[in-house]
Amino acid sequence: MKTSSLKALSLTLALAAGSAALAKDEGQIRIDGSSTVFPISEAVAEEFAKVAPKVRVNVGVSGTGGGFKKFLLKEIDISNASRHIKDSEKADAKKNGITYIEIPVAIDGITVVVNPKNKWASDITLAELQKIWAPDSKVKTWKDVRADWPAKEIKLYGPGTDSGTFDYFSEVIGGKSGALRSNYVKSEDDNVLVRAVAGEEAAMGFFGYAYYVENKTQLKALSVDKISPDATTIQGGTYKPLSRPVFIYVNKESLKKAFVKKFVEFYIKNAGTLSKEVGYVPFQAADYEKSLKLL
């Protein structure tokens, strides 16, 4: 999160949170999970620290699946997630006596990116993405996708299997969770993927929209079926089927700690502004009001 871009917001956010009361709170909040949601949670944590300096908020990144594993073992208070909790994870939560609240925090558009030196591709179809990424894909070069594209080997990069972005993309492209080709370079760290695509002329990768926005000079986003990812198309749903909500999951037991509940309230009240600051698309104000009522 760029601190300079938030200076104008700090006073407003601090006043909204009631800084005098929060300054007395102290404790530790543990957050882990999705790399997609990480920039939002990190931004919220940075702003919260200004009004509640004695509360330590630790935000880690282990992928949505990795975050849920820790959440279901009661190792963390909040799990960042770029997908809904799975039925198997719900069962583990019930078995372990964990009850939780699902809070949508922003809308993401999974962005398909290439290197800026790639002058041949600016748009791709959903069918072509399926051809490239299918589990049984025979695609090796760009020419295998379109006859007028060069016979350069496609270097593929994407999230690992613990990622909610992997799950969502594979459901859309492969028809079910996990249905993607396995022979691509994987990382749970989206910044690693950014650097990889930025360094390979014939590369292609996919990850959350915010990582593209943060690195526009190093990447080129492909439009999908003639629709480019941006705030309007993602919020309006025309950038489909790659738009999706992202969430935080909060352990209800943790909410019994006053400082955790105050943090979650702060998160919801400021998620719209801060998600936009880091490159995501906010929900409508009424949607955040619904989440506040859950608390």
Largest sheet composition: 5 strands, mixed
CA radius of gyration: 20 Å
How big a fraction of the residues is strand?
15-25%
Mean pLDDT: 92
Q: Runs with pLDDT <50, length 5+? A: none
Given the C-alpha coordinates, what overall shape results? Answer: elongated
- Level-2 CATH architecture of the largest domain: 3-Layer(aba) Sandwich
| Class by alpha and beta content | alpha/beta
- CATH fold naming of the largest domain: D-Maltodextrin-Binding Protein, domain 2
Termini separation (Å)? 27 Å
**Spatial order of strands in the largest sheet:** 2-1-3-12-4
Number of separate helices:
12
Oligomeric status: single chain
Assign the CATH class of the largest domain. Alpha Beta
Report on the architecture of this protein.
With 295 residues, this protein is of the alpha/beta class. The protein has two domains: 3-107 and 246-294, 3-Layer(aba) Sandwich (D-Maltodextrin-Binding Protein, domain 2); 111-241, Periplasmic binding protein-like II (D-Maltodextrin-Binding Protein, domain 2, 3-Layer(aba) Sandwich). Helix content is 41%, strand content 19%. The chain contains twelve helices and twelve strands. It has a five-stranded mixed β-sheet. A five-stranded mixed β-sheet has the order 8-7-9-5-10. Helix 1 (3-17) crosses helix 11 (258-277) and helix 11 (258-277) packs antiparallel against helix 12. The longest helix has 20 residues, at 258-277. The radius of gyration is 20 Å and the shape is elongated. The protein starts with a helix and ends with a helix.
